[in-house]
Design brief:
Layout (H helix, E strand, L loop, with lengths): L10 E5 L3 H13 L3 E5 L10 H4 L9 E4 L8 E4 L1 H12 L7 H30 L6 H22 L11 H13 L9 H11 L2 H8 L10 H8 L5
Parallel strand pairs: 1-2
Antiparallel strand pairs: 1-3, 3-4
């Protein structure tokens, strides 16, 4: 009898259920890759543990360890955009090999990493976590999220996905859009709303968004200080 093919060793996913974490859990579910969940409770400061800093020197999750990396040797990867690209290259899925198509995916991936994520994150912070009622900051960042939604909406008027076929660029943006609908409804942006519903209908996306959902709890004052009182050490 022929030998059974060996199962790929499981990727370790260092994770907390946030929009950045969801990017990687969604892709792993879409790829059907085996993975082990390593929760990093950012409210308790577990992201500052020395062992985790060896994997993620920016003390942020997500991060992964792939025990079968390049050359068959383990590799750790931090920063969500880098992880998406790495897994896309590794598997040849959701990240095209054709250079022109790959450039289109990279454009929208970097657009999310440099724009949508930070702006939506700041809006969420000043609306929901700031101890002061800073009207200017709230308007500044919610206006920018509105503008960015408009950019996506225009892009999606003529296509189903951001960069041609469904890709890591869509996965990167989804959770940030969904979480931002708490303060920015999509009534003004029908193509964007249709895109979000299209992605949320995917079973792998549903599984990825559900990973670790039970871990999230209301933030305490002590957790607020840990998350938002950081300075260089």
């Amino acid at each position: 009898m022929p030998a059974k093919p060996k199962k790929s060793p499981a990727i370790e996913l260092y994770y907390w259920p946030t929009p950045n974490g969801h990017k990687i859990s969604i892709l792993l579910e879409e790829l059907k890759l085996p993975y082990i969940l390593r929760s990093v409770n950012i409210g308790k400061g577990e992201q500052f543990a020395p062992a985790f800093l060896k994997i993620s020197p920016n003390n942020r999750m997500p991060a992964i360890i792939d025990p079968k990396g390049p050359g068959g040797k383990p590799i750790s990867v931090f920063e969500s955009g880098a992880i998406l690209q790495y897994l896309g290259r590794k598997t040849g899925k959701f990240y095209p090999k054709d250079e022109r198509q790959r450039v289109a995916v990279d454009e929208w991936l970097f657009w999310q990493v440099g724009g949508l994520g930070p702006m939506a994150g700041q809006a969420n912070h000043f609306l929901n976590y700031s101890k002061e009622d800073l009207v200017y900051a709230k308007k500044r960042y919610t206006d920018e999220v509105h503008r960015l939604f408009g950019v996506m909406n225009t892009r999606l008027k003529s296509r189903k996905y951001l960069a041609g076929a469904y890709s890591i660029a869509d996965m990167a943006c989804l959770s940030w859009v969904k979480s931002s609908t708490r303060f920015q409804p999509l009534d003004e942006f029908p193509p964007l709303a249709a895109w979000m519903e299209r992605l949320l209908a995917r079973k792998a996306v549903q599984r990825g968004m559900a990973v670790g959902a039970e871990l999230r709890k209301p933030m305490t004052d002590a957790e607020h200080k840990i998350l938002f009182g950081q300075r260089a050490k």
